[in-house]
Amino acid sequence: MPDEQARREEALVEEVLASFDGASPRLREVMRSLTKHLHDFVREVRLTEREWAAGIEFLTKAGHITTETRQEFVLLSDVLGASMQTIAVNNEAYGNATEATVFGPFFVENSPEIAQGGDIAGGAPGEPCWVEGTVTDTEGNPLPGARIEVWEADEEGFYDVQHDDDRVAGRAHLFADADGAYRFWGLTPTPYPIPHDGPVGALLEAVGRSPMRASHLHFLVSAPGRHTLVTHIFVEGDEYLRRDSVFGVKDSLVKRFERQAAGTPAPDGRDLGDRTWSRVRFDIVLAPEQADAGSAG
Q1: Count of CA atoms in the C-beta half-sphere (13 A) of 170
Q2: Vertex 267, ends 157 and 184: CA angle to 5°?
Q3: Which pLDDT score, from 0 to 100, does residue 139 have?
Q4: Is the confidence at residue 294, as pLDDT, over 50?
Q5: DSSP secondary structure letter of residue 251
Q6: What's the pLDDT band for 293 if we cut at 50, 70, 90?
Q7: For 62-121, how does the pLDDT look when each residue is reduced to its tens digit (9 = 90+)?
Q8: pLDDT for 172-195, tens place per residue?
Q9: CA–CA separation, 107 and 113 (whole Å)
Q10: Dihedral sign (CA 103, 105, 110, 116)
Q11: For 10-46, b where at least 16 C-beta lie within 10 A, e where not — what string?
Q12: Helices in 19-148 by DSSP H: which ranges?
């Protein structure tokens, strides 16, 4: 590259970086770093104007398809691994604390509360699954009253919010008992594709990647003085464990869902008739509350 061309490009970078000098310290740090990396990218790949326009069109389409129940920008962050990298940065390894993974775009506030042993399915289709475990701190002390939020897709691959009839199914919350234990009925997780009828799906197709997610069940677990955990558990033996579309699988979160033959007595005496079912144990360990890393506001 001619020296004069390099000088002009570098001068523009410095001019844009200087424009953030009046911002708060954290916002200045974030915007200067973002700008520098963005300009480095443009210069490294020698981005063409046609490619720039295609990128703007992609983002515009992502905005247009986003709704209250579908967040295309979260999907984009997920498939680029940015969501998992942010999770890694904000959930530093701490002793034997349970690992975190992606939040996903289908969490909904104000889920129904169920009692211990209740059923989150809400009529959603799928094989029953008995889920049980404990919530403790890293010293093994139980955390009574810990809030356990759970949600999942049905066997057809859809979350309740993907339907247009306002159903509430496959999600609920409950509280750990005096011993830190919890138990509930859900559905045996099955693989499903992330929404791929929009720009993110087109991107995956263009690069030859599958939109499929490994079978999983979402958890959000919180307790006073503990770091809030967002995680999943995954099904041992699932074919997508090594090619999950959002890079969310961690070995420590892969659990054995033990299949039970029809007629096998349920742990709580529930009459399952001639249906097969599964069971899994997930013991949750919460790290101490972490200091707020600050914001870019």
Answers
A1: 28
A2: 45
A3: 97
A4: no
A5: G
A6: very low
A7: 999 998 878 899 999 999 999 999 999 999 999 999 999 999 878 989 999 999 999 999
A8: 999 999 999 999 999 999 999 999
A9: 15
A10: negative
A11: eeebeeebeebeeeeeeeeebbbeeeeeebeeeeeee
A12: 25-45, 49-65, 72-79, 82-90
CA distance 34 to 27: 10
Residue 202: DSSP 8-state: H
Cα gap 180→189, rounded to integer Å: 24
Q: What is the pLDDT of residues 107-154, one digit of tens each?
A: 989 999 999 999 999 999 999 999 999 999 999 999 999 999 999 999
The tokens describing 186, both together, are: 């859900």
Strands 284-286 and 128-137: parallel
- The amino acid at residue 222 is S
Cα 126 from Cα 186, distance rounded (Å): 9
Per-residue CA distances from 290 to 225, 228, 230 (Å)? 9, 9, 14
Contact 188, 129 (CB under 8 A): yes
- Spatial separation of the C-alpha atoms in residues 74 and 199, rounded to whole Å: 12
In the chain, where does DSSP find H-type helix?
Answer: 3-18, 25-45, 49-65, 72-79, 82-90, 199-206
